[in-house]
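Supplementary notes for students who missed Thursday's class. We covered one full example, reproduced here. Read the sequence, then the structure, then the short commentary at the end.
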Amino acid sequence: MVDEVVVPVVPVDEALDALAKLAGITGVMREHGALVAHTTPEALLRLCMMLRDDEHFALAQVMDICGVDWPERPLRFEVVYNLLSVTKNARLRLIVPVAEGAAMPSVSGVWPSATWWEREIWDLFGISFDGLADHRRIVTDYGFEGHPLRKDFPLTGYLEVRYDDERKAVVYEKVKLTQEFRNFDFLSPWEAMTTLPGDEKARG
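Structure (token representation):
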């Protein structure tokens, strides 16, 4: 009698499978062990509520939201939501592409802490959020022009702020460079030295 060969069954990634079946998901994958999903601005709100309320996912917390600038793409920006389920010990990165000038739906009604992150994205990238009650700047100053994390934002900025002793007030002025912009090498002398006196003894 010939012994039957048992072929091990490769376990299916249940989380990926379950995510892929959700309405509004345009793609799922694992990247360096992390679960990543893509969706659209139109499907975002309904999807986030499902990810929060469905016991299979239970992604009750938004740990942070950030922006990414891809100037060469037709949909220039991505808004990235990093979600956490404490009960499932699971994380999900949800990525939403958005065109320049288009507004994203605010998820502050799903996760109230998202207000802080959405304000930061508005300030640094200029992406507005429909339904966000507070679009004040949160990182830069009140009189700041532009959005400094856009890749086309000038390295020197547009305005500089200083205290004018004569006027006894804080003043905003156009940036004046006293010298042309240079690239500095901040490598310390110790890091730059590739050989030290006496190294030849070790090789001999």
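Commentary. The chain has five helices and nine strands. The first strand starts at residue 25 and ends at 31. If anything here is unclear, bring it to office hours.
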